[in-house]
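Hi there,

I know you've been waiting on this one. I reran it after we fixed the sequence typo, so this is the corrected version. Both the input and the resulting structure follow.
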Amino acid sequence: MTQPDDELQIEEKVVVVFDICSSSNILEELIVRQNLRPMRDLLIEVKQFLKKKAPLLAFDPYKFTGDGWIILVPRGVSGSDLVHFLEELSRFFSKKLKHIVIPHLEHAPSILGLTFGVDVGPLVRMRMMGKPEYVGRPINIATRLQSAIKDKDDNPAYKVLFSKPAFNQLRLTTDFRKTRPATRTLRNIRNGRRYACMKVWLKI
């Protein structure tokens, strides 16, 4: 357990937050059918995929959020490598969703897939209840960017909102993937009323 007199530990990270589109609707139908196993099995498959791929980018699948994950990636990661990983994850998820979950739904939601938010910056590392925990603005920004993808977009699946600092520091370019500048309102974020970001379409 981190104590008040311990030295402050700061780690620079790229924070990736992703979420399953329409997860609430999917769960509601599975609950009605009294069959939550497909969603459980899908999440286990995603967890195992993340565990397998983590060494390639030296990332930490830090926290499960109920219908997605927060991933912490070393700041020196190649932007193109990160995007390729997100695309590989998206293809894997799409395949598993189709085979594990969709057959158990009478009415599949119109929006299916993953959405992503990415920011970069310093996080404070602590130990709480014997586990490493992180706090910091990049987690807040990435979480809100992920949530804001669906704003002004009727088809948000397999798209990423990068903060401009993350987009620039990862040395991404607008000709690497389809990319558009965007603004979003980020709740409870200083200067978040018109937050500038870059929207990237993943190739899956």
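Quick highlight: Helices lie at 23-32, 37-57, 79-101, 137-148, 164-169.

Best,
R. S.
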